[in-house]
Structure formats: structure tokens, C-alpha cells
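Q: Got a minute? One more chain.
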Amino acid sequence: MSYETYRIMLCNRLEELGVRLEEIESSLDAPRPKDWEDSASEREGDEVLERLGSSGQAEIARIRAALRRMDEGEYGFCVKCGEPIPEGRLDLLPDAALCASCADEASHQAGHSRPL
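A: Always. Here it is, folded:
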């Protein structure tokens, strides 16, 4: 896949996330029910929405970083070891900043069970 194709994919995803975050923000800003039980349920839902929002913001940051790497001619190379990131990895994770080996190492250091 060409880098321009990856750029389009990343920009499209960035747009999708922007819409999703706006929807989450609108939902969180909506008036709350006065009934205590309904309000408690709403708060639980808000916690889920806040986690989704945080996850979306983190993905936006990764996408923007990938687009910067493209602009700087560094896209497709591991930011840690400098080796090329295989196209198959970029097909799955177009915002990948690390090769699979460095991502696996970082994941183990952070105590995660799956690669970043």
C-alpha cells in the first residue's frame, strides 16, 4: 500500500473519531434525570463514555503523530530502532510508531499482555 493510501486511511479515521468524540461530549453534557436511580445509572454510563473518549483522544494523538512522521519523511520506520515497519503491520495499524519487535518489548516492560 502506498503512503498516500495510509494518509487517507489515517485522515478518514481522524474524522470518524472527531465525530464520535463530539457525540460523546454531547451525551455527557446532556441534562441528567432528577430520579436518584436513573441518575446513578447515567453516571455509570458516563464513566464508560469518558473511557471511550479518553481512548479516542489517545488514538487521535497517535494518528496525528503518524501524519507528522509522514510529513517529515519518517513514516514507516520504527521510532525506537529505526528499522522499517513491515507493510503488513502498517496495514493493520497505520498509526504504528514501533516495529513489532520494539512494540513487543515495550508491551512487556509496561506489563501488557498484547503488543502495542
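A: The first helix runs from residue 3 to 29.
Q: Perfect, thanks.
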